[in-house]
Automatic annotation (TrEMBL):
Gene: 11420826
InterPro entries referenced in this protein's UniProt entry, alphabetically: METTL2/6/8-like, SAM-dependent_MTases_sf
PANTHER family in the cross-refs: METHYLTRANSFERASE-RELATED (PTHR22809), TRNA N(3)-METHYLCYTIDINE METHYLTRANSFERASE (PTHR22809:SF14)
Organism: Medicago truncatula (Barrel medic)
UniProt keyword terms in alphabetical order: Methyltransferase, Transferase
Family: Belongs to the methyltransferase superfamily. METL family.
A GO molecular function held by the record: RNA methyltransferase activity
GO terms classed as biological process: methylation
Record-given protein name: Methyltransferase domain protein
Amino acid sequence: MKKSESEAAEYFSKDFEWEELRSEVESNPSLRHHFQSFSHSSTQSPESDVQAWKQFHTRHSSGKFFKERRYLLKEFPQLLSSSHPNSIPQKLLEVGCGNGSTILPILRANKDIVVYACDCSDETLAKAKEIINENSNAVDSFNIRFHPFCCDFSTTGFPNWLACNPCRDNFLQKQSYYFSDVKDDKGMHLRDSCSSEEIDCCIGGVDFITLIFTLSAVPLERMPRSIEECFTVLKPGGMVLFRDYGNKPDILFFSELFRK
C-alpha cells in the first residue's frame, strides 16, 4: 500500500473503535435489527429505540467513545463555503448530533454558518451543549450559532419552525429544478431564491443536512420516510451530506432519492 493510501485508511478509521462498536451492537437488543435481512421489519417500537439510545449515550457520556470528526471538512468542503451573496448566514441541520463531534469542527472552521442540531436523547443534547460551551471563546461564541433541539425525525418528523408547511411544499416543487445547477458546480454555489427567509413562522429551511452514522440507527421500514422528511426542510439547491457504515462520505441529491 502506498503512503497516501495508508494515510487515507488511517484517516477514515478514527470515527469509532470497531471492536467496541461490534460489542455494543451485539449486546444491545434495540440494535439487533441491523443483523436482520432487508426483507424483515424491526419489531422494536420507536419508544424503545429512543430509550435504548438514551442508555447508550449515558454509558458513553465521558465523550471518549466519539472523536471529533475534523475529516468531514475535507470530505465535504461545501461546509466551508461562505454566506449567501445577500449576507444571510447559511444554515446546517445536523440530524442525530450525539455529543457534538460533528458540529464542533464545523463551527470552528466556518464562522458564517448557523447549526441546528437534533437528537432523540435529552441527555445527549445536554452533553453536546456542554462540549460546545466549553470550546467557545470570547472572539467566537459558538452558542450563538448553535441551536439544539430534541427530535426523533424517524417518527415525528421535524418541527414546523424549521420549515412551515407552505415552505415545505414549495421546496419539494423546486428541488428537481435546482438539482441540475447544483450538480454542475458540485454545490459550491447554492442558490438562495426562497422568499421564506422573511417569513416569521419558520426559519425558511436549511442549506445543508448532515446525516453522519445516523441512518443506520433508523429501522429499515422507517428509513425511506426519514430521508424524505429531510428533503422537506431542505432549501432548493441545498444538499444532504451523509456517511454511514460501509459507505464513503457522499452527497445525496433530491433526484437520486426519488428516481425509480
